[in-house]
Structures are given as structure tokens and as C-alpha cells.
Fold this sequence. Notes:
Elements: H1 3-24, E1 46-52, E2 59-65, E3 81-87, E4 107-115, E5 132-134, E6 140-143, E7 155-158, E8 163-165, H2 172-179, H3 199-212, E9 219-220, E10 223-227, E11 230-235, E12 238-239, H4 251-259, E13 308-314, E14 323-324, E15 335-338, E16 354-357, E17 365-366, E18 370-371
Parallel strand pairs: 1-4, 7-14, 13-17
Antiparallel strand pairs: 1-2, 3-4, 5-8, 6-7, 8-18, 9-12, 10-11, 13-15, 15-16
Amino acid sequence: xxxxxxxxxxxxxxxxxxxxxxxxxxxxRDNPFDLYSTNYVSPDALFTVxxxxxxxxxxxxxxxxxxxxxxxxxxxxxxxYRVAGWYANPSFTQAWDFESDIVRGNITLYAKWxxxxxxxxxxxxxxxxxxxxxxxxxxxFQMGQDDVEDAYPVQQISFTYDxxxxxxxxxxxxxxxxxxxxPSFIKGNDQRxxxxxxxxxxxxxxxxxxxxxxxxxxxxxxxxxxxxxxxxELEDLVIxxxxxxxxxxxxxxxxxxxxxxxxxxxxxxDNDIDDYAWYRSNxxxxxxxxxxxxxxxxxxxxxxxxxxxxxNDWFDDYSGDYKTDYKGPQSGTTRVLRGGAWYDFASTMxxxxxxxxxxxxxxxxxFRVVSFAE
Length: 374
């Protein structure tokens, strides 16, 4: 056998090996010799793409011609989880790109799920102050809603920490005990939520509560401006998020907790709103004692309706970016208000609804606090 013939056989063997290696990396290529075959696929041929959701025995199929892209299937609702991606193999090593990957044959795609918001599977935990533990470390959730004003684009938020939260808004009794006065418009029952407080009033309450309980204060400032009992300014304000004392929740913490693991517009899903919130149609034009309605799955009462709740953040538009431990913008002119009030329509009770309020403003605005303290 000549040297030339040996060389040709060797090159041909390398070519076949290369073809086989390429085919092994392509889950759709049933025939590795398609690379150089003259048996072309008919443009009228249809292939089946099966979607295996790996959840509740759900499956779906699409038909596509050779060389076409396919549509991403609608994600089913699964509390506490989201589809992180689709893959061309069950071991999740070959990701499928719906914008660029094309169909070359029958294929099954597999959904990979990521854990979303925490869903309690047993009894809730509380610290010695009666605050409920919100498990957030290692979880993430979808913050916002695309059809709600100022709540889009939706953004994915994750946390690296757990925190404790008041199960109810701060009551008039709790506020008066520490601050020495009751600023509320509607009195007569000291278990009603305190309202008619500025954002600065809420901050001062947080610091006083921290001092009472022997915790590090979160907020520091050089001076304060008071008009009677009302605080309208805190100069050189610094917020120490590492302190174990009490503070207002970040907007991300508030929505994560208010949703209680839900992904629906209202945390109660299709249940009756009257079982969960005080709003225009059932409030009789007044606030009500806290914890009279049913809580969400995290044990939180009155996160929808009764009074608005101040959050720690400056108010701004959403960017839609993925964020971890998001604390809001660095500056602004208004602070975030959440939850809706007794005078609002039912549509305002949604978990994603948000407003901005002048931090000096007083209305039916209350608050609840969070802490890291056990």
C-alpha cells in the first residue's frame, strides 16, 4: 500500500471521527452522517418538540419544521419556584436558547426549576419579642407586576439573610408607650394601627424601641427638626443595616414578606378579599384593630389595607435588573409607601402596588418594623 493511500485513509478516518464527535454533542442529530449526506430533509416535514416540566406530570408539545426556532412555553404557577431554564437533556448540561437554537428533529426539552420564595412547611418561628421569622436567605422572588403602574419592569430579588418582622403594623398602644403621645386621626381603640406619622416619626420610634430592648440603633443623625411632636427632618442621616436594632423594612423585604410565597396579584389568590383586608367596601370609613382579618402564609396581618406602611427606601422606577439584598436607590425625594388603606379600592390591595410619599407627609400612614435580633 502506497504512502499516499495510507495518508488518504488516515485523513478519512479523522474526518469520520470528527463527525461522530460533533454528533455526540448535538442531542437532535440522530444520523451523524447528515453532515455530508445528500438526503436532505423535506421542508414540509414537521418535528415534535416535547416539553417536560418536571412538575405535577405536566407536559406540552409544539410542532416545528427543520431549521425553525420554537416558542418558550408558558410557565406554570408553582409556589416557591420558577423555571430557571430549559435543557435538551435531563441532566441539565445542554441549555436551550429559544432565540437561536433551531429544530433539526424530534426532541424533548426539560425544565429546570430554581427555588423561589420560601413556603412554610410547618409551624412559624418567632423571636422573644413576638416578631415572626421571615426565611429569605437563599431564596428569591419576582418583585413587581408588569401591569401595575410604577411596578415594572419586574425584577428578580434574592436575599442572603433571614429577618424578623412585626406580625402587625405598630399599634397606637405600642407607639404611645414609647413616644409619649398618640398622633392618630382615628382613636378610641389603642389596638388600631398608629397613623398620621411622618417617615421621620417612624424612624425615631425604631430607635427608641431599639434602646428599650438593649439593641444597637440603626439610624444615626446630627440633629432633628420638630414641629410640636412631629419630626420633619433628620440631618446627616446614616442607616446602619448591619445593626441588630429595629428599622423600617426595605421595599424588597416588605413585598417578599407581604406576598407570603405567592406569585399572584393578591397574596390570597382567588379567595375572598373581605377575609384578608380592610378597604373601601368593608371598612365603614375607619381604621380597625389589627389582626382582625386572616394573615398571609408568613403569619402577617394587615399587609393589605387598614393603613399604608412606610418602607425604608427612597422611591424610584424599577430597573428590571437582578438584585441581591436590594436596599433601594441612594437618594430621592419621596419614600416608599405600601399596602393600601381603608379608603382604597380593592385593586390597590395588590402586593406589587407602590407609591411615593414626601417623608414629611402625614396621612393614614403607619408602619411595621424588622430586626435581626433573635
